[in-house]
Specification:
about 280 residues, eight-stranded parallel β-sheet, two-stranded antiparallel ribbon, 12 strands, TIM Barrel, alpha/beta
Length: about 280
């Protein structure tokens, strides 16, 4: 299915799937966040030169969206304060808005971070908690930005310790349907809403692959589907490889997601992911 996504002052034509490049601005991301800053005086300081260099490379490689995350959401991760998240994220939003022609997404659940990011030029909010924090939905409703609603069982710190589903596909689909309805009722139009099944967020390896195999069922919500599967542990479980060595597995999983109807692929490795999108589109004509 093809969609025209409204994201602030931008419109993204998703008749061709888009790649979202990942910019983790954290010291403890499961993959690569620590590469974009360093610990100084017991605090993580972002290196904007490194961030811009990475961002420019991703845009040159074909990323249409860059997703900035200032809170690690790996399994077992602790929450960070809003002030710490703001200090990591907002300078990056400013730098990208001033230097690159790209859609800027902020990976956050914190209402004050959402508000500041929007005021500094963010076009999209990518929320692993699906706008469940008090005031978040209203902030999006009063803006023009897009929002991605993701399913997560529990919270990052404990999500992989205990989880159960009657049927993982129907349970995740039902949750997202309700969150979409809540956002619509708050005044957020369909052309600003995306959904994400939440691969790796409170799910077993089997659950993740069941969701991937049945991704086409999420088309029933008639909204763009974002898939974030890049370098995740579900791929390590079947390949036995460390996060940075999962590029081929990530591209393979992305291709399967595209076949299932994914409209946006969130990726660490933009160039090979964009190649996979191009091959998929040529094959699907």
């Amino acid at each position: 299915m093809s969609y025209l996504l409204t994201a602030g002052d931008r419109q993204l034509d998703l008749s061709t799937p888009a790649c979202m490049g990942i910019l983790n601005i954290t010291p403890d991301s499961f993959s690569d966040g620590s590469e974009l800053g360093e610990i100084k005086n017991s605090s993580f300081e972002v290196n904007l030169d490194k961030v811009l260099k990475r961002a420019e490379s991703m845009v040159n490689d074909g990323a249409q969206i860059l997703d900035i995350g200032g809170e690690s959401t790996r399994p077992g991760a602790d929450e960070v304060s809003s002030s710490e998240e703001l200090s990591r994220v907002i300078p990056v939003v400013d730098a990208l808005a001033s230097n690159l022609d790209v859609c800027i997404s902020v990976d956050t659940s914190a209402p004050d971070v959402i508000e500041e990011a929007i005021s500094h030029g963010a076009h999209m909010v990518n929320d692993i908690r699906a706008m469940t924090r008090e005031g978040a939905v209203q902030l999006i409703a009063e803006s023009k930005v897009a929002v991605c609603l993701m399913h997560m069982h529990g919270q990052p710190r404990t999500m992989q310790e205990e989880y159960s589903y009657d049927d993982v596909v129907s349970d995740v689909l039902s949750y997202l349907k309700q969150r979409v309805s809540d956002c619509q009722n708050a005044g957020i139009s369909n052309d600003r809403i995306l959904i994400d099944p939440g691969f790796g967020f409170g799910k077993s390896v089997e659950h993740n692959f069941t969701l991937l195999k049945n991704l086409n069922q999420f088309n029933s919500l008639e909204l763009p589907i974002l898939v974030g599967i890049s370098r995740k542990s579900m791929l390590g479980a079947v390949t036995g490889k460390a996060a940075k060595d999962r590029v081929a597995a990530s591209v393979s999983a992305a291709t399967l997601a595209l076949t299932g109807g994914a409209n946006i692929i969130r990726a660490h490795d933009v160039a090979p992911t964009v190649d996979a999108i191009r091959v998929h589109c040529a094959y699907s004509k």
